[in-house]
UniProtKB/TrEMBL annotation:
InterPro entries recorded: Chromo-like_dom_sf, Chromo/chromo_shadow_dom, Chromo_domain, Chromodomain_CS, DNA/RNA_pol_sf, Integrase_cat-core, Integrase_H2C2, Retrovirus_Pol_polyprotein
Keywords: Multifunctional enzyme, Nucleus
Any single Gene Ontology cellular-component annotation: nucleus
Pfam hit, one: Integrase_H2C2
Protein name, as recorded: Retrotransposon ty3-gypsy subclass
UniProt xrefs under PANTHER family: PROTEIN CBG26694, PROTEIN NYNRIN-LIKE
Annotated region described as Disordered, given as residue ranges: 338-364, 795-831
Length: 831
């Protein structure tokens, strides 16, 4: 009934009598009066199944009328306008008349703004409780026995969808349902619960129909006795309640901690409102400690894992709000007692490692050392840093974190660069990060490692790695992609928002960057058509740079750019806060903050290594009284550049070498190093085109024919034809040599037709290198061409859809032609 504003209710008189009783069954309904036997010709009242039968017949009679609803002999017609309503009512009455059903005029109400249906008052505003029913409940006397409580509770429970936290309100009364006389058991607590339920029914809000144009909101709350939730929408700063739900906790659930009860309320709410919430972005208002509890468990128990499976299937953001009370009307919220403080207060404990007060510095001793690395990091010494007041520390950590949603190490490095330090700073930073919901939702874990192949460079701008990231189309500039270019030596990144990924667009962006920073010696990219095309090839030939392409479906080969794409997109998404249509406006900000963030590889800011200077701080320079002449500034700049080339660059190279050596040693000690597979090994390879669970995970078999310096293999199939793409070891699965590779192998050019039944199909094959006369029917077991089979069935499906669309188009054209001919005949008659 959503959107309707005019209603009519129709009531049928003697409705059951209109059903004819079959002649051979009339004696079953006979009775005797004054020695005369009478039989019902029409169906009498009192038969058990007649209501259901009548309801089904009425629904069939009114089938196809979306503006009609019926329940037994009550019919409601609803429309958006009075003119439309008159037509709807007339059609319904005509259908009822056609089967000799008679209306009870005294009980019919036409063209009403609100009507009473099944205990509710329905109007354009929504569904409210029938005030006549509420008046009866308000006058209900105080229960004297357990049976009285059962009758009262049953009546109130019928309207529980309109009563927030009904389980909490009714809990004291439910304990007395099975009691006898209540004279000695009834207390002020029960009297208060009784009055609160009656008041809640009198103040029950109107439930509005959901409006899919606006986002949904869910608020949950949990107590020691029950859990509850409310689904609502905020439209034009007004709350539109869609439904309330609540239930009592079981005996075992009452033993849950407060956090688990809050989480149980969340899981229960999203399950109950699944039809509204699944597949849509919504806001969840809760204490949200349940989510923190769930995500910080070192080892989740099976119950937590099950809850996590439910929660992670929905798209929502969490906001802190103590239960549903803050979203209720004021008159209702006053019925509930103040929220009790959670057990244990508001101090959650998290276990973390490496949280001592010492600053993480290079392994080399900084005191008394004359190495360049020691001189570079000397300013990190704690004796030169200031400790802020304790009440300001959380704000400093939060501001540093929100620059780019840094992790704990990056926050500490950023504050150290500002000369700020205090004891346990890393532990405090970890607490800030653990409390950031966008980070908890955006960060992902690494579940394994492959053999390391470091990509190195000797100087800034010598080697660039590039890649593309895709984001929703922005409304401000129509941008859909973001180009990420990373300098391998400094880890300096350049970001460009792009409207598409065509060759001219990519080429213009790349040349624009090279115009600012100079052409590199090496350009590293994927081998997609956006990077491998005539324009890029021309630029490569003219500039003389080495354009290195990675192995298809092996993103680790371009790991630096791939990782930076993920970091950039996470940084942008975290800054958007739900407004995704203007993400391109945040690209310069993300580029600046990422380049100002200390890189763990060399311990410096990429910006500093790229330009041989520190970036300007974001502060007020209007009162800057620096009295340095241009000549002095130039000399100082020359000294900085000279020191940068003679000290910083060698120190950075030394540090990166040690970092990579340490990383390799750590990796070798923690992982099993896989030796190269011998030439001739029989393997199958990962099906990178797999689009469904029914397709095979691997294709093949193949034999290894070569191994290049990048650690990827060249393969050949059973016919000896070389596989078109090199394959990394992560996509290879070694199979037994017992699997035969038949010598009588022929290559399929295409599949022409099929016959047989599912599971026993035969296919008409066109063989590559043979004429049409050599086509043969082959059973599916003889074919090793999953990709071609999939393409064949996809093409058949597409052809069937196109044929169906063509037939529909022809029918429409024929109908239009017939209509045009009819109009022409009418015009000629009028003429």
């Amino acid at each position: 009934m959503q959107g309707a504003s005019v209603y009519t209710t129709l009531d049928l008189t003697n409705a059951f009598h209109r059903f004819k009783v079959h002649d051979r069954d009339q004696h079953k309904l006979s009775f005797t009066f004054n020695d005369i036997k009478y039989c019902f010709v029409g169906c009498p009242f009192g038969l058990k199944h007649i209501s259901e039968r009548y309801n089904a017949v009425l629904k069939r009679l009114l089938h196809g009328l979306p503006y009609v609803a019926s329940f037994v002999d009550d019919i409601v017609v609803f429309s958006k306008s009075l003119e439309e309503h008159a037509q709807h009512v007339q059609e319904v009455v005509n259908r009822l008349t056609s089967v000799n059903l008679i209306l009870n005029r005294e009980k019919c109400h036409f063209a009403q703004r609100c009507v009473y249906l099944l205990g509710y008052c329905v109007s354009a505003e929504g569904r409210a409780l029938d005030p006549r029913k509420v008046t009866n409940v308000a006058k209900w006397p105080t229960p004297k026995t357990g049976k009285d409580i059962q009758r009262f509770h049953g009546t109130a429970n019928f309207f529980c969808e309109h009563i927030p936290c009904f389980s909490n309100l009714s809990h004291p009364l439910k304990q007395l349902r099975n009691a006898g006389d209540l004279q000695d058991l009834w207390t002020s607590e029960h009297d208060q619960a009784f009055e609160n339920i009656k008041a809640a029914m009198q103040e029950a809000p109107v439930l509005s129909p959901p409006d899919l144009r606006y986002p949904f909101c869910v608020a949950t709350d949990a107590s020691k006795n029950g859990i509850g939730a409310v689904l609502y929408q905020v439209i034009n700063d007004r709350y539109h309640y869609i439904g309330f739900m609540a239930r009592s906790l079981t005996k075992s659930e009452r033993n849950y901690s407060t956090t688990k009860r809050e989480l149980l309320a969340i899981v229960y709410a999203i399950r109950k409102y699944h039809q509204f919430l699944w597949g849509k972005h919504f806001k969840l208002y809760t204490d949200h400690k349940a989510l923190v509890y769930l995500h910080t468990q070192p080892i989740a128990n099976p119950m937590m894992v099950q809850w996590l499976d439910v929660i992670c299937d929905y798209d929502f953001v969490v906001a802190h709000l103590p239960g549903v009370l803050n979203v209720l009307p004021g008159s209702l919220s006053r019925l509930f007692p103040p929220e009790e403080e959670l057990e244990g207060g508001n101090t959650g404990t998290t276990s973390s490692k490496n949280t001592d007060s010492a600053i993480s510095l290079p392994h080399d001793s900084l005191h008394g050392s004359s190495t360049p690395v020691a001189r570079l990091h000397h300013h990190y010494h704690t004796a030169d840093m200031m400790t802020p007041p304790e009440e300001e520390r959380d704000e400093l950590l939060r501001l540093s974190h929100l620059k780019g949603h840094y992790a704990a190490d990056a926050i500490v490095s950023d504050l150290h660069s500002e000369g700020i330090h205090w004891a346990n700073i890393k532990r405090d930073a970890q607490n800030i990060v653990s409390q950031c919901l966008p980070c908890q939702k955006g960060n992902i874990g690494k579940h394994g490692y492959h053999p390391l192949h470091h990509v190195t460079a000797n100087a800034p701008c010598d080697h660039w790695a590039i890649d593309l990231g895709e984001l929703p189309t922005s409304q401000t500039g129509g941008y859909t992609f973001i180009l990420v270019m990373v300098d391998i030596f400094t880890r300096y990144c350049v970001l460009r928002a792009l409207p598409d990924k065509t060759a001219p667009t990519i080429a213009r962006a790349v040349v624009s960057v090279f115009g600012d920073y100079g052409f590199p010696k090496v350009l590293q990219s994927a081998n997609g058509t956006e990077f491998v095309n005539t324009i890029i090839n021309t630029i490569t030939e003219v500039s003389g740079m080495d354009h290195r392409l990675i192995t298809p479906y092996h993103p680790r080969a371009n790991g630096v750019a791939e990782r930076w794409v993920g970091t950039v997109k996470q940084g942008i998404v975290k800054l958007l806060q739900g407004k995704s249509n203007d993400w391109d406006l945040y690209v310069p900000t993300v580029q600046l903050f990422l380049n100002s963030k200390h890189s763990p590889l060399h311990g410096s800011r990429p910006y500093s290594l790229m330009f041989a200077r520190q970036p300007n701080k974001l502060c007020d320079y209007s009162n800057d009284d620096t009295n340095v002449s241009p000549q002095q500034a130039l000399e100082l700049r020359k000294e900085d550049i000279e020191q940068f080339e003679q000290v910083v660059i060698p120190a950075i190279k030394e540090r990166m070498q040690r970092m990579r050596a340490a990383e390799k040693a750590r990796y070798d000690s923690n992982n099993r190093i896989i030796d190269p597979l011998p030439i001739g090994t029989k393997v199958v390879i990962k099906n990178v085109h797999r689009s469904g669970k029914t397709e095979p995970r691997y294709t093949g078999p193949f034999r290894i024919t070569g191994l290049n310096r990048g650690g990827v293999y060249t393969l050949a199939d059973a016919t000896g034809e070389v596989h078109p793409c090199n394959v990394p070891q992560s996509h290879i699965k070694v199979v037994s040599d017992d699997i035969p590779l038949s010598k009588d192998v022929y290559e399929v050019e295409r599949i022409l037709d099929h016959k047989g039944r599912p599971g026993h199909y035969q296919y008409l094959i066109k063989w590559k290198g043979y004429s049409e006369a050599q086509n043969t029917w082959e059973p599916q077991d003889n074919l090793n061409a999953e990709r071609l089979l999939s393409q064949y069935w996809d093409q058949r499906k597409q052809a069937q859809q196109e044929a169906k669309a063509t037939r529909a188009q022809r029918k429409r054209a024929a109908k239009n032609n017939a209509s045009a001919q009819t109009n022409n005949k009418r015009q000629r008659r009028h003429a």
